[in-house]
Specification:
alpha+beta, 7% strand, 134 residues, HNH nuclease domain-containing protein, binds zinc ion, nucleic acid binding, HNH_nuc, two-stranded antiparallel sheet
Length: 134
């Protein structure tokens, strides 16, 4: 997932800024475009969706400071997701084979299926029970 990140033109920044009501999607406060630095930011990180993240719904304005804080959280979540995926698909190969466990001690098995049941079974019941008529 290493799609090149396209640089937004000034025209697209302006369009997205207006489309999303000049509001920071992270803190919900209006953005003063003159006094406050702002970015167009991916709501769902581009690292997760690749080029599919580059939609108007997923690209919203945010204060630079809000964006910075969100990116830290996103990076941590992404790293955790990658570690989980690695464990899930077994990426890491152990240098030594996993040692086999100890064999079970010889003796009687704890439970034998061939012994007759001593406990009384509950009475059988029909699977289909017609509803009483009203
Ligand atoms: Zn903000």
């Amino acid at each position: 997932m290493t799609d090149p990140r396209p640089r937004l033109s000034d025209r697209d920044r302006k369009r997205l800024f207006r489309l999303h009501n000049r509001t920071c999607h992270i803190c919900g406060q209006p953005i003063d475009g003159v006094r406050q630095a702002w970015d167009i930011e991916h709501v769902i990180p581009r690292n997760l969706l690749g080029r599919h993240a580059d939609t108007d719904d997923n690209m919203k304005p945010a204060h630079k400071s809000c964006h910075r804080e969100k990116s830290k959280v996103d990076a941590g979540n992404l790293a955790e997701a990658n570690r989980r995926e690695d464990r899930h698909i077994g990426v890491h190969q152990p240098k030594q084979p996993v040692p086999p466990g100890k064999p079970l001690p010889a003796g009687q098995p704890a439970r034998r299926a061939t012994e007759p049941l001593t406990k009384q079974l509950p009475p059988r019941r029909a699977l289909y029970v017609p509803e009483p008529r009203r």
